[in-house]
UniProtKB/TrEMBL annotation:
Pfam families (UniProt xref): GST_C_3
Domain of life: Eukaryota
Domain GST N-terminal: 26-105
GO biological process: glutathione metabolic process
Residue span(s) of domain GST C-terminal: 107-244
The protein's name in its UniProt record: glutathione transferase
EC number of this enzyme: 2.5.1.18
Length: 246
């Protein structure tokens, strides 16, 4: 973790900055709470890339006014020539990094499909938060079971079909890792981690074979294995459990 002072974004013309974002030798800083949550995919993308990155220590009361929309995460990118780019909003950050790290397919159609699956999983995450994550302790098993049997069941039916259409090979598109694979795996990992005792988890090699293959493909990538087994990831696990496991 770094100091709490935020980088100052470079002020320049849109033409200059549009060239700066093409940098292939950048370093990154991410500002977010000490939780997985809305920065989980961003951290995974950065870990996957092998790029140099670090986290900015959170002092939200001080930092809030300095962020683009007074919310986090915020990504700071420093290009090879020292230009600093400031990017807000979770989904924008995820898609931006995915494009930089070649995780949006091999053509415009594949990119469109990957973004479609990414958006579908994002909608599922929103419904998960609304229907389960902040439910009171005495209602958590009931809330989880209801979510699994209704909303998540519909998601599984649709996504299993698309994954089967792609050859049941552990990927949404082609034979390569994509943002869609990482987004869905992130959700499945967190849903599994936060599953309350007494609720029947609806994800397994038998129940959701194609989604399971996606999860295995993502979590077996060497850079992601290194991140998932790191001390920092374990710290985030513990802090996330403290906040959301009841």
């Amino acid at each position: 973790m770094t100091l709490t002072k935020l980088p100052i974004a470079t002020k320049a013309s849109s033409q200059f900055l549009s060239q700066a974002i093409k940098s292939s030798n950048s370093s990154y800083k991410i500002l977010y709470f000490n939780l997985h949550a809305r920065a989980e995919v961003t951290r995974t993308l950065l870990a996957f890339s092998g790029a140099k990155w670090e986290e900015i220590s959170i002092d939200w009361a001080t930092q809030k006014e300095q962020t683009p929309f007074q919310c986090i995460p915020v990504l700071y990118e420093t290009t090879a020539d020292g230009t600093i780019l400031q990017i807000g909003e979770t989904e924008v950050i995820e898609r931006y990094l995915a494009k930089k790290f070649n995780l949006l397919g091999q053509n415009e159609w594949e990119q469109l499909m990957i973004e479609q699956y990414h958006s579908s999983t994002l909608a599922l995450q929103v419904m998960y938060r609304q229907n389960f994550l902040f439910s009171p302790p005495e209602k958590r098993v009931e809330s989880a079971t209801s979510f699994y049997n209704d909303i998540f069941k519909k998601f599984v039916t649709v996504h299993e079909r698309y994954l089967e259409k792609n050859g049941s090979n552990g990927h949404y598109i082609g034979q390569h890792l994509s943002l869609a694979d990482i987004k869905t795996t992130s959700f499945l990992d967190r849903m599994t981690f936060l599953n309350p005792e007494g609720a029947d988890l609806p994800v397994s090699a038998e129940k959701t074979p194609n989604l399971w293959k996606v999860r295995e493909a993502v979590n077996s990538h060497p850079n992601i294995v290194a991140w998932n087994t790191s001390q920092r990831h374990q710290e985030l696990d513990n802090l996330t459990a403290t906040k959301f496991k009841k």
